[in-house]
Amino acid sequence: MAFEGLAERLQATFDKMKGRGKVSEADVKEMMREVRLALLEADVNFKVVKKFVNDVKERAVGQEVMKSLTPGQQVIKVVNEELTALMGGEQSKIATAQKAPTVVMLAGLQGAGKTTTVAKVANHLRKHNNRKPLLAAADVYRPAAIDQLETLGKQLNMPVFSLGDQASPVDIAKGAIEQAKEEHCDYVLIDTAGRLHIDENLMGELQDVKEAVQPEEILLVVDAMTGQDAVNVAESFNDQLGITGAVLTKLDGDTRGGAALSVRQVTGVPIKFAGVGEKIDELDEFHPERMASRILGMGDMLSLIEKAQTNVDDERAKELEKKMRSAEMTFDDFLEQLEQVRNMGPLDDLLQMMPGANKKAMKNIQVDESQIGRVEAIVRSMTKYEKENPSVMNASRKRRIAKGSGTTIQDVNRLLKQFEDMKKMMKQMTSGQKGKKKGKGGF
Ligand code: GDP
């Protein structure tokens, strides 16, 4: 999970501020020293860190800070806003040309995830924007890239334009646009060739394609796991080719997360998408504000709810949200939630998105996904009365349930404990949120 280390460190630093009545310049200095180290440890580019820390300091010790909120809240607010600004402020969507088809060129080093991302973006455009994309196989350099794109196209049931690996990328790109016009496709996504390192041939080839087809967007695909290298790559591509946006891939594997915080700042172009897994639907739109909240441990309720909405039907998603907020859960709800959650992706990721989520609180409620079947069996062996009133559970009931579900009393006990912990956490989360709204509580 990206940003885990950074989020933990920042939270620990802010915890120190709790209970202080007033924040002095020295306090802010001390906090920002920690923030600086945390960011550097998260592999954020040092120039970016320096600017960030200075910006926050300037605002935090200025007049803005000494008003209504508590000192911790004030500094968090500033850090949150500055983090959001650092990652681009507003969310930036993929562009649409005035005249169809919109041509989007994807560039990047070999292995960054370009070909995969072409398919992911195409899928996203169709699923969320109702578009009809055509994929162009212009990576004539990496063996098997063309086959890979053709396979992905088949999987998505989308047209792929290819002229084999002997044709020039310019001809392929032009041909693809012609075919898109004939077939009334409104987006052409061009998979271009990468190299292991930046070299003149690569840049020359990309410039030729750019010139020939005048794309609306040139998206640079960078591997977030490469940390500072990703930032250097982004800088060079931007200088030599000119890019309009970036896609960060493998954010699922990047525990330091520094690249996301630096790429935008160093190149000035927005991050448009984040790749969060190998599968075709594992691509998220990049929301700076939500990402900043996540880094600061404020959770990401919006993303969570959005996820719920695309994967389960609306009614059930609303129900789920309501139940979570009210913390009135029965075992039937619990079961239903487990089923919905199972459709949404790995549990750990989802738990991280909840407000108030931090590692310590999560320890007792982590549900091993392979155990979900067992949990279901236990719940299904309960009577209606037991499901609605878990407190009546005594030894003989537990024995009966264990027997009925083919599990052990320990399994039943563990589930009861998890259920209670989850309820407790939801209660804390919701009371914390109410507190925040009224401007009380929190820090
Ligand atoms: P290309 O050379 O840039 O076209 O790279 P590919 O599209 O072939 O991707 C290289 C590898 O990275 C493949 O194994 C992909 O499955 C993997 N990959 C791409 N995006 C992601 C991502 O967001 N997360 C993870 N975990 N793997 C990814």
TrEMBL record:
Lipid metabolism is among the record's keywords: no
GO cellular component, one term: signal recognition particle
Example GO molecular function: 7S RNA binding
GO BP annotation list: SRP-dependent cotranslational protein targeting to membrane
Keyword set includes Isomerase: no
Domain SRP54-type proteins GTP-binding span(s) in chain numbering: 270-283
Oligomer and partners: Part of the signal recognition particle protein translocation system, which is composed of SRP and FtsY.
Protein known as: Signal recognition particle protein
